[in-house]
Amino acid sequence: MEIRPVRYDHPDAVTLDELVQQEYARRYGDGDMTPLDPEMFTAPHGAYLIAYAGARPLATGGWRRQEDAAEGYAVGDAEIKRMFVVPEARGRGLARRILAALEADARAAGRSRMVLETGIKQPEALELYASCGYVLVEKFGLYRTYDDSRCMAKVLVTEG
């Protein structure tokens, strides 16, 4: 298994994004409406990763710099987007490995807090994030007014 940085518009990223959108539609009735641009996931503003088994992409995730106070973000925030593992590769720890790599990259880029939004119809995501040290926080972002939305955060750096 190899985790590689790619552009958000890389063909493998596009394919995995289509699959995650189908997953969202199946669970919520619609895909994620958050506007995303490949430049959001380029250093130093973010990163986009894919886990490969040989040439086959199995898992993905990215982070992007977010500091828009009007949407509930704070200075230093890095927001996780498009965490996804193809169904046949689930249960192998790939999401946990992608998440750790995203946290390390965001920390190296000077981000102080990792934030994410997920929903109540993704209990496995909520469990993963909680087991990795994420806690529920006040809602932020596009889905902050949705009842089934849950926002979580984890401090990446401690003052000392």
From TrEMBL:
Per the UniProt record, the source organism is: Streptomyces lydicus
Q: Which InterPro entries match?
A: Acyl_CoA_acyltransferase, Bact_Acetyltransf, GNAT_dom
Q: Name one GO molecular function term.
A: acyltransferase activity, transferring groups other than amino-acyl groups
**Taking every annotated instance into account, which residue ranges of this chain make up the domain N-acetyltransferase?**
1-157
Q: In its keyword annotation, does this UniProt entry include Acyltransferase?
A: yes
Give the keywords, sorted: Acyltransferase, Transferase
Give the source's domain of life in one word. Answer: Bacteria
Q: Looking at the keywords, is Transferase present? A: yes
Concerning SUPFAM superfamilies, the annotation shows: Acyl-CoA N-acyltransferases (Nat)
Tell me any Pfam family this protein matches: Acetyltransf_1
Q: Which Gene3D superfamilies does this one have?
A: 3.40.630.30
Name this protein carries in UniProt? GNAT family N-acetyltransferase
